[in-house]
Task: structure prediction
Amino acid sequence: MKRAGNLYGRIAEPLNLKLAFYMAAKGKLDRREIIQFANNLEYNLALLRHQLIYRQPDIGHYRFFRVRDPKPRNICAASFPERVLHHAIMNICESAFERYAVYDSYACRKGKGTIRALERARSFSRKNTWYLKLDIRHYFDSVDHSVLLRLLHRRFKDPQLLYLFAEIIATYHTSPGKGLPIGNLISQHFANYYLGILDHWIKEELRVRCYLRYMDDFILFADTRQKLQQRKRFINPILFLFF
Result:
């Protein structure tokens, strides 16, 4: 696997930071924290650039609240300057994550939302009699920081970027060394990438043609129940390595 490099400097470029501001502020320009940031935009973007250059990101300022969508979830929203940082990172790094993703991985990908996932599931169901639906209980809370960092080292080779990833990951935990915050752009990409190795294993080792995953929900289709039962026995030990 070819690793992506020379990305960190591009994240800190002024034009990328300005683009990240507009992306983070889109549809929310009436919010007080965004108005305050925009009122001194050039200074705030220069400060963010300075923090990146000197590897001193001001991160970990979270606001917590609870929603139902439809089940209750604890949402952890980063401060607006951090959200600008997250967009700046993903503007540059998203393509590296995208290159690793299998075709039928959905969520956090352009053109790969809920509707497209449902259409694909319907297509698979017309070809198969049986399906196996699995999910990972408390997925975001269960992501192992050390495993995630090892996976990121496989994808990226820029030491400064990997340091920044580690700093962001370390700002949040639900238990020692575990957990990603629900509600942050970069967390969604990390969480999707974390299960990418499962996608590749199911497609390439188990050779399951009709398979899709939407974040931590994944479905396998087959023409017999026995095939799915056998595949489930193989999948469970793999998941144990990551959680």
Remarks:
- The mean pLDDT is 93.
- The longest strand covers residues 62-68.
